[in-house]
Amino acid sequence: MQGDERLGQAMEVFWERGYYDTSIDELMERTGFHRAEVYGRFGSKQRLFEAALRQYRENVIRAFVEPLARPDASLADVERFFHGICDRATAPKRRRGCLMVNTASEVSPHIPSVAAIVTSFLEELRGLLRRACVNARKRGELRPDVDVDRVADYLVGAVLGLWGLARSPAPETMLRHYVDGVLASASGPRRRGSRPRRR
Amino acid sequence: MQGDERLGQAMEVFWERGYYDTSIDELMERTGFHRAEVYGRFGSKQRLFEAALRQYRENVIRAFVEPLARPDASLADVERFFHGICDRATAPKRRRGCLMVNTASEVSPHIPSVAAIVTSFLEELRGLLRRACVNARKRGELRPDVDVDRVADYLVGAVLGLWGLARSPAPETMLRHYVDGVLASASGPRRRGSRPRRR
């Protein structure tokens, strides 16, 4: 396996088991990395984890925020984004949740360099959601007086809630109802009679 | 220290550090338990954790679900409940989040007996929120056609989102805006012109 494939394998192990429950022995067994390589290339388990988390952001998160990536993304794209997370979250491996959101709770209170990666992700996510709300307001899909900063904050929290539900033992219907509630809420400040355009 | 006080100390350690990052050595140092006692009384670190989690539910969660405990709890009580979590979550030790919600993500995918405790908590929470919605609907605070099962599922997810935000590096304003969004959404299916009664 190439180095990046093995880093991808390490990402999978951390995603499934979390940071603290993953031993160097398990990483070596499941990735093919040798101990000397882990320390030589990364310096420590923590640095390997940070590299895996960056790779997760680059590869996995890039795919799930794709609906929000277009500069003209609007309310229908926010809906696509949440339904996309819900589909991933209820797929067979759903119990893994999102490595970044798991890390926000498990690791970021203890390791500042990891908290910095999580903060940067939360800011990016908030920025994408805020831009979609600004676009929706301009198009009249949201009321002109809607506070896009508040809605963006709400939606970031909703993403954390959804991934939290996904990794918990909550039943799948709860995830679906949760997303329906979030989307009804996000489009609540919608102009009367206006529906978001679908592409 | 009495046994239960030491169990309370163990609860605090797990709450702050999580299950996997807490070693038996740290538990002994911070609780006064001796190794032989941990194994003699509880059998394993896992069983000690489960006892601490049950104590957390009994002592800490009982306090934070108090607004929903009255059989006639209604929409104003749901609001008090969420504002109460938000106040706890933004207090100086807020970065700890909620031990039960942290555990739902960190431990329950791996240990079925822990998942059972989390499931029981989620069901209790859902039941309390659902009852408050039924009462609110009866009183005309929610529209007569509102689906209380969907709203209850949404609100359970919202609790997980709020505690997830609390343990993440998200700024405090984000938590406040999130709660405002949740409450606006929960009372969205409210009858026009009706406001929940405050006691």
**Quaternary status of these chains?**
homodimer
Strand content of chain A: under 5%
Number of helices of chain A: 9
Order of helices and strands of chain A: HHHHHHHHH
Give me the Rg of chain A, rounded.
Answer: 19 Å
| Spatial gap, N to C terminus of chain A | 40 Å
Low-confidence stretches of chain A: 190-199
CATH superfamily of the largest domain in chain A: Tetracycline Repressor, domain 2
Q: How many DSSP-defined strands of chain A?
A: 0
Overall pLDDT confidence of chain A? 90
Report the CATH topology name of the largest domain in chain A. Answer: Tetracycline Repressor, domain 2
Counted up, domains of chain A total 2
How helical, in percent, are the residues of chain A? 55-70%
Label the structural class of chain A: mainly alpha
Going by CATH, the architecture of the largest domain in chain A would be Orthogonal Bundle
Q: What kind of sheet is the major sheet of chain A? A: none
Report the principal-axis shape of chain A.
elongated
Q: What is the CATH domain class of the largest domain in chain A?
A: Mainly Alpha
Name the biggest interface: A-B, 50 and 50 residues
